[in-house]
Amino acid sequence: MTYLYHTVPVYDGRKSRLRVPEDLSKIPDVLPRYEEKILEDSLALVAYTVSTYAGKGARKDQDQVNLHIHYAVLLSTEKANNASGNEEGNAANE
After folding, report:
1. Which of 23, 48, 50, 91 has the CA that lies 20 to 30 A from 3?
2. Whole-prediction pTM value?
C-alpha cells in the first residue's frame, strides 16, 4: 500500500492470534507480507505514531500534526453481518 509516496508494509494476520501490546513489535518478524489488493469491508490494525509541532508563519498559533503510518495488519476479509449497526437490519433480525 502506498501512503503519501511511501510504501506501507501490510502483513497477513488473518490466521494468527496477536497479543496486544506484547506482539506489536514482532509483527514484521512473525507475519507474512500481504501483497494482494485489500478488499472493501476488510478489517485491519494500523500501527502509527503521532507527532506535533508548532506552526509557522500565518499558522504560528496552531499546532501541526503528523501521522506516521508504520505498517498495517490485515485481520479479516470476511464481511461482517450488520457491522455498520444498521437499525433496519437489526430490527429484521429481532
Report:
1. 23
2. 0.69
Strand-pair partners of 48: 69
Residue with cell 478488499: 39
- Smallest CA-to-CA distance from 1 within 85, 71, 50 is with 71
Q: Tell me the mean pLDDT in the region 25-30.
A: 90
- In the chain, where the domains are located: 2-79
Start-to-end CA span in the chain (Å): 40
Average pLDDT over residues 4-15: 88
Burial of 72 (0-12, 13-18, 19+ CB in 10 A): buried
